[in-house]
Every structure is written in structure tokens, then in C-alpha cells.
Amino acid sequence: MPMVETASPALAVIPLIFACALFAAGAGYAFWWVKRLGRRMSAGQVAWPLVFVAYLVFIAVWCAIGWLDAGIGALDMAVWSAAQTACGLCTLARRPVLDWIESLPRPAAEGIRAGRDVSVLAGVSIASALMVDAAWSDLAGSIPVRFVAFTALLLAGFGVVAYALGQRSGVLMCLVPIAAAGFGVAQYFVVQLKGAAILPSDLLALDTAAAVAGAYDFILTPQIFWVLCVVGVCVCLLSFVWPGRVSSRRARMANIAVNVACGAALSAGCVGLFRSVSIDEALGFTYDRWQPIETYRSCGFVPSFISLLQDFAIPVPEGYTSEGAQALEDELAAQFDMGMGAAPERLAACEQFEQVRPTVIAVMNETFTDLSLYEGLRAAGYTGPEGYNSLTGTLMRGTLMASVMGGGTANTEFEFLTGNSSAFIGFGKYPYQLYDLSGVDSLASQFAGLGYATTAMHPQLPSNYNRSSVYPELGFGEFLSIDDFGEVESYHAGARDKATYDKVLELLEGDDAPQFIFDLTMQNHSGYDPGSVPAEDVVRYAPAGVADEALLGQLDTYLACISMSDNDLMYFMDRLRGLSRPVVLVFFGDHQPNFSGALNDALYPGEDPFLHEMRTYESTYMVWANYEVAGAPLDVRTEVGAAQLAAQVLYRIGAPLSDYQKAQLVLDAQVPAVNLLGYRGADGLRYALEAESPYRGALNQMATLQYENFARKVQ
């Protein structure tokens, strides 16, 4: 995240003083209630004010850590603390107020309760609808009323369900404002970390998010600070929602049963509406696939999130049938066999592969890209990773079209290992988190079928993106996680690239048989705050048009990481050159860094939105061998999609191909690169996925084949 000035930790004293005052007032109230009035205190009388004591202490601790923005001054802290203390004091009056309502004639009491509950629910729902976007977006005030109204109605629906399941009390209803603020705050931090919006599948990757969260400072902005104040007010109001006493045990049990039944019926109704009503059509908006964060900003978090959630199923290609898809695959595979497959260079490579059976090492280097693709940065003197760009004798290299930017590593990994593109799965979906991949073809199972030992390695927690389960499903015989690396040299965000390369070399030394090794590095993971790399490694660049010092600081830190990665790659390749065994190295970066969107906007204002966004989804790749591959021309430059890279590599080294890969290669002649946003045609132009082009038919065939080989197996 960008560096920001933080408030003085001394401000923590202010909420602590108010917390002590509130606790003292609560203790005095308890003494008066029990000793003077001789009455027993209920659990609610004790718990509600203590909630606010804990809230004040929480903010004090957050401030003491140094995680409050400098824009929050002593006066702000005093007002906020006073407001939360006042809310806590109000809850002390809760019991007398409820007792007074209880003393009224039943019709009057029920009328007051009904009016109170409806008013509180409406107020809390509206406040929550405003909070969820106010916490993260400066444009929250410009969101059209219909989107805010939809959010408020949806949250009111959740509130009514919580009201019923919570036995008509406000306890469970407190989850509505807390969740609204929580999602808003989380969205703020995700935007800062990845430049992206929270997606439904992100909720399935919370363990991964938690694993990398320690590298960041979660600094509360003034916006968030005041949203948290409103949360306290909402909780205070909800503390007064209570149904009153029930005279008999039988009546109590009947009330519980009726409330639970109503809650269940309301929940079923909400699910039915979700399945039957399209949010996009009902509210009249179109999701921006090129810049999804802009949809969140202009339409609000909740409508955008729900829209994605409704589109979670993998779309069926138009006219798809399993029989038709299989016939298409057979036809294209036959075309390959008679054309590309019968070419002399392919036949020579196949004969050689059977004889030498090379080890294949795939390195997906975390956030490794060549940012010299940005002309303004190139003009400022940056020419890209020096060693990498000066390599000669590669089998192929060029631009890799990725389907993620700033995060979402697992999707580039999935595309490369399975040959399936996110373009035909849909936006916001992480297959590693959503599907059982045990029946899906992959490079690992393909090499295992050839008798290769298969190993995946990643110096991080094995639970990240569910890899500990996914890798065996994909056919890897072994998975080396952070626990298998021991004490290794770190750089920036984790184990240095060199540590993973040494682990690969260790595997090669321990087994002369052919191996397929997939190495996912960690070193270059975001964020890129200055100070996370040695000062002597940083080179200062100042591209014209980029005035944001925080952005420039991130850029310089990131480029220092890439320089270290470049050095380690040269070391690794030197070691591979010295081996007597044949080795093929596939090296690629998974995505651009999280600040690329801001850099792109600064350097290329006013561009066509699609082409502008596509630039941030470019990464880089190269394929190299330490032996002379028969029939293979050298230094071929071509752009490929992450899902298309593996088939291209196998073709060039003479490895056996599946019918699906053969079909892919035939279609690659028309659409050589595709990602989640669009594709490049054989004419060199880029097209949005939905746009008409001369290659529309080939793209539809790709979607049909992938549905047959992937979606049909996992849905």
C-alpha cells in the first residue's frame, strides 16, 4: 500500500480515558441498580455498555500500533470517543425504557415496539447502505439513488431475517451495520493492495489473504474512522430493540418456533429472488469487464458484488452440445496431425524427445514483468530486466497475456497448468477455490503419464489458494511449501528467488530420471512500500507525467525486486547450462504489480478504455533449453495467452500432445493470445471478448472445446 503519514500513537490515550470513564459509569450504575434498587441486572444491561468499552479500547490499540491516518487529529479522536461513550451511556438507560414500555397497556406497548422496530430497522439499513461505499470510495456521494435504495432494501431484508432469527431483538441485527462497514473497509484495503474490487470468490480465499496480510499496514483513513462512528450509533439504536417479556414458558416456545419459521421463510424468499431476478436488468446497468473497479465506484459495492454473484456459473457457449464439441475436437486434432504435426521440425523434435526425455522446469515468477513496455518509463531510462532482455538462444519469448492484474496469482497458474482460459470461465472466479479439479487434465498429470516425477513448490503456506488440495488433484506427486524450505535467504516479501532455484537444483541432483517441476516464487509479492528492500538496490526513476511521490516510491521498490529476480534467474540458467542432463526452462510472470493501473492512467490519459486496460494485463515469458532442440528455430518472438503457453512449449520440444492441445494449436493460428478481457487476432489487433471480429468463430470454438474439457467436468 502507498506510504501515508500516521497519527501520533499518543492519541490512543484519548479513547482509553473515555473507555475508563464509561466503565466507571457502568460500574456505578450497576452498584446503584443492585444495591440501592435491590434488583438483579440482566445480561443485556452488562453486555451492551461493555461492547462500547471494548470498541474504545480497540481504537486505542489500533492507534498505538500506528495504524491511524495523520488526518485524524486530537479533536477528531475526542469527538469520536465522546460519541461512542455517549452511545454506551445510552445503553444504560435501555432497561428503564424497556420497563416503561412494558408497563403500558398491551395495545400501546405493542404499537410503540412496532414503530420503534420499523424506525430503527429503516434507519440502520439506510445508514449501512451509505457506510458500505463511504468507507472506501470518494465517489460514494455520486452513486445514483436507485443503487443506494437497492442496497438499503437488501440490507433491510437481511435485517428482517436477523430480527426474526434473533427472536425480535437487536442482537443479530447488529451484524448488518457491522458487515456493511466491514465489507466497505475490506474493499478499501483490497483497492489499496491490488487496485481491484472484492470478488465473490475472494471470500473463499480468506486464508490466503490472511497469510499475506502481515506484510501490510492497515491504516484507517478519516473516512473509515467516521464510518466506524456510525457503526457505534447503529449498535446503540439496535440495543433498544427487544420484544418484551413473555408470561409463560409455553408462549415463549411458541414465539421461538414462529420467529424461526418466519426467518427461514424470509431466507427462502430472498434466495428465490436472487435466483429469479437479474440485478443487471432490474437496476439497468452493465458490468464493466475492462475496469470492474469503476463499476463498483459508479454503481456501489453491493449491486456490483451481487451482479457478479449471479453470474457465477460458467456460461454455456452458444449452440454447445457434448457430441458437437467432441466432433469439433476430433476434426481439429486431425487437421493438426496432417499439418503442424507432420511438419519436419515437429517430427524431428518428437524423435529427439523420446530419446532424451528432458526435464521440464516451469517457473512462474511472482509479479515479474518488464515495465519498459510503458513508453514513459522507458523514456525515463528504464530498459527492463537487463539479463532477461539480453538473453539469446531462447526457443520462444514475448508478451504473455494474463487474466489478472495486481493479484490473483492462482488464476495465471491455473491457466498455464490446465490450458483453460478465464475468458471462458467468467470474471471474478478462482477455479482453485471453486471446483474439484481431480478430473481435469493438466501438465502435471500429462507428464506423470509419461513416467515423469512431478513436483510443485511454493515458499508459502500450503493452504494458500487451496494448493495443498489442488496440487494432488492436478497430478503433482509432491508439493514443497514453506515448511520444506527451512531457513532461507529472504528478500522483500519472502524467500528469495534463488532459494527456490537452489531447491530445484537439489531435486535434480537427487534424481536423474526426467522430472516436471513447477516453481512458484514469492519474493516480488506486493506491497512495495519504500524500505522493504535495501536502499542501495533502489534506482530512482521519474517518468514524465507521474507526480505522485507514493507511486514513484512503489515503482522504484518494485524495480529493485525485479533487478534481484533478474540476477537470480541468470544464476539459475548458468547452473542449468552446466548440467549434463537436458533441461527445458519455461519462465513467466503471473501479472503486473498492483500500482500498474495508476501508472498506466498517469502515462496514458484519455486512451480507448479497452486498449488502455489491456496494457495492464501484459506480462512476459520465455522458453529456453540447455540443449539444442531438434528442428526448433531460435529466438522466436510471439504473444501468447497464459492458457495457450503450455501447448506451444510441448509442440516445440516434441512432447506428446492431447487432442485438446492439438485443437488449441490449430486455433492459435487465428487467435494466438486470449485473456479475460479480450484477445489478439492473427492480424495483430486486439479485440474485446464481446466484440465482432474476423476471429469470432475461432473464439467460439475455443469456448466450446474448453467447456467440454473443463466446465462439463466441474459443474
UniProtKB/TrEMBL annotation:
Protein name: Arylsulfatase
Transmembrane segments: 12-34, 46-67, 143-165, 172-191, 224-242, 254-274
Main localisation: membrane
Pfam family, one: Sulfatase
InterPro entries named among the record's database cross-references: Alkaline_phosphatase_core_sf, OpgB/LTA_synthase_biosynth, Sulfatase_N
Origin species: Collinsella stercoris DSM 13279
GO molecular function, one term: hydrolase activity
E.C. number(s) listed in UniProt: 3.1.6.-
SUPFAM superfamilies: Alkaline phosphatase-like (SSF53649)
Membrane topology: Multi-pass membrane protein
Domain spans labelled Sulfatase N-terminal: 358-627
Alphabetic keyword roster: Cell membrane, Hydrolase, Membrane, Transmembrane, Transmembrane helix
GO cellular component: plasma membrane
EC top class, as a word: hydrolase
Localization (cell): Cell membrane
Biological pathway: Cell wall biogenesis; lipoteichoic acid biosynthesis
